[in-house]
Each structure stands twice: as C-alpha cells, then as structure tokens.
Amino acid sequence: MPGTRLSQQDRVAIATGLAEGLDYAAIARLIARPTSTVTREIARNGGPGRYRAHAAQRATARRARRRPGAVRPAGGTATVPDGRDQAAVAEFADRFAALLVQLGLPRMVARVLSCLYVTDSGTLSAAELVQRLGVSPASVSKAVGYLEDQELIRRERDGHGRREQYAIDSDVWYRSMLASAQRNALLAEFARDGADLLGAATPAGQRLDTAASFLSEIGTDLVRAVERRRSGNGLL
C-alpha cells in the first residue's frame, strides 16, 4: 500500500489531471492513492479550479511545522539537527525525484535515488527508506533492485554487520554516463547489423547506417569526456 503522505510529484500529477479534465477517481488511479485522499487534497488547497501543486506542497509543509513536536528556531522554521530546513530539504528531494521521472526513471526508483542523494551519509537501510518515503517494503525492494542492476547504488552491511544498507557513491553520475555510453554502443551495433541486412544502397540501410555512426561517435565522445573529467579533477 502506498504511504499516506503525498509527494511533490503526486501533487504535480493531481494538478495535471485536473487540467486535463480527469475526474478524482481517475487521478487517484494515476498516483495509486484512494479517491478520498485526492478529494481531501484538492478540497483543502483551493478546490479543482484553484489547485496548484507548489502552493499545496508549501501549505502542507506549513501545516507540518505547526504540529506538536516540530522543532522551531526563533524564526519558526522546522529544522533537523544540522540546522537545515526539513521541509525545504523534503521539497527539494521531491522536485529532484520529479525531474528524474521526467528523464525516464520509474517513479519509485527516482524517489529512492533522490532520498539517498540528499542524505549526508549517502546510506540508508530498507527500513529507513520505507519510513522516509511512506511506502511498502516491497516497493523499496523493487526500486533498489532496479538501481543495483543499473549500478547506481550498492548493497553493504552496517558497522556491526547485522543490517543491510544501500549506499550511493560520489561517482554515481560517472558510472551512469558510462552505462549510457554502453547502451549507445549496443544500439550502434544493432543499427549497423540492420544496415548490413537491408543493404547500404537502400534508403532504410542508409538510415540505419547513419544512426549507427552517430550513436557510436556519441558513445565514444561521452566515454572520453567523463574519463577526462574524472582524471582531471576528481569531482566524479
């Protein structure tokens, strides 16, 4: 079962659904939430004609800060022990996940990746991910499996060796770019086989041959660029 808390991307999906004329039940199916959740969310944030995702997110953060137990400095903003604005960090993580979804990652995969990325240690257990994201252990397990397959995170044991944790390294984008280059190389090889099959003199063969050359060159340039960046300043 999904968590009860709506994320920034949930609210963006609600706003998009309203703009497209979807009813509440259809929007609820879109974000895998009960219709009652969508109904309450829209009603408490201006109704269907005035609902705005970012405004709803800010209003939710304000309500959370007013709840008993929230730590408030003199300025009234809820913070975590390191002094950061907890609501702002959570909103950034949601926006980061939404961007990753736009770039093609599955929604839950994007949420797990962004959650790890904004954590100073870069390491969280499955239980911590479940608690932070408000989702089921099965959802986290599936997302973690995807990220491991893509070599974007790694599995390790905690200091006592008792609990599995998932970690993201500072070179995650380096490895991601290399994986992208490898995909380009596979596509180039496939296109070249197609060009040979169809014949270089035919329009279809020429089209595939052009694609093969382009993908191959892009992949080579990408590998050179990330290797140069990695060896030049160690930022990746």
UniProtKB/TrEMBL annotation:
Residues 98-206 form the HTH marR-type domain. GO terms for molecular function: DNA-binding transcription factor activity; transposase activity. It comes from the Bacteria. One of its GO terms (cellular component) is cytosol. Residues 70-79 have a biased composition (Low complexity). Residues 59-82 are annotated as: Disordered. Residues 59-69 have a biased composition (Basic residues). GO terms for biological process: transposition. This is MarR family transcriptional regulator. The lineage of its organism: Bacteria, Bacillati, Actinomycetota, Actinomycetes, Kitasatosporales.
